[in-house]
Amino acid sequence: MAIWDSLGGRKEGQAPAAYDTSNAQDATSFLSEVSLDPTQLHPLAGLNQDALDYLTLEDYAVDNGSVLPSRGWTDDLGYGAGTTYVAALTLGGAWGLAEGLRKTPATAPPKIRLNGVLNSITRRGPFLGNSAGVVAMIYNGLNSAIGYARGKHDAANSIAAGALSGMIFKSTRGVKPMVISGGIVASIAGVWAVTRKAFL
């Protein structure tokens, strides 16, 4: 009795039939049937070859008075606050690392020493980063507003914006901390403005 192969429908011991490739489609014949007409993307799009517009990006005027290319106060705010926050966060983390290593006894077990160092880093880093980021946001906003009011951007704008932003940041602590903070931020802004002008 003949036993049929359940997969191929052939008798046991019989060789499989060769596959006929003469009628097979290649990639070219398959792709030629695909239409790339943009009007068929969606019936509500209302697109045709005459009305199809491509994405155009406006070339904004770049402020050449800055180290980074700037298209306005929003770019300055992003660059200034972001870089200041990251720099202060890194500096605060280094400060916390040194403080943690100094305060934790060298004879303490490694886990206790690591915990003390990490606590110092997470206390100093975010504190310094957040504070500097807030001052940078206030500074960039004031600097842009002063420049817009005066009609020019120079070192005087930076120093005035630095003094005001430092005083606003410490405005809840009293007059003396306000003056000290304003002087510190104005000095930093003045050094930044002079250094930037020297390298540009």
From TrEMBL:
Keywords carried by this UniProt record: Membrane, Transmembrane, Transmembrane helix
Taxonomic superkingdom: Eukaryota
Main location: membrane
Membrane topology, from the record: Multi-pass membrane protein
GO molecular function per UniProt: protein transmembrane transporter activity
Residues that span the membrane, as ranges: 177-195
Record-linked InterPro entries: Tim23-like (IPR045238)
Entry-linked Pfam families: Tim17
Biological process terms in GO annotation: protein import into mitochondrial matrix
Subcellular location field: Membrane
GO cellular component: TIM23 mitochondrial import inner membrane translocase complex
Keyword Transmembrane attributed: yes
Record's keyword annotation contains Cell wall biogenesis/degradation: no
Stored PANTHER family: SD19278P, TIM23
Name the UniProt record assigns to this protein: Mitochondrial import inner membrane translocase subunit TIM23
Organism of origin: Penicillium decumbens
Classification of source organism: Eukaryota, Fungi, Dikarya, Ascomycota, Pezizomycotina
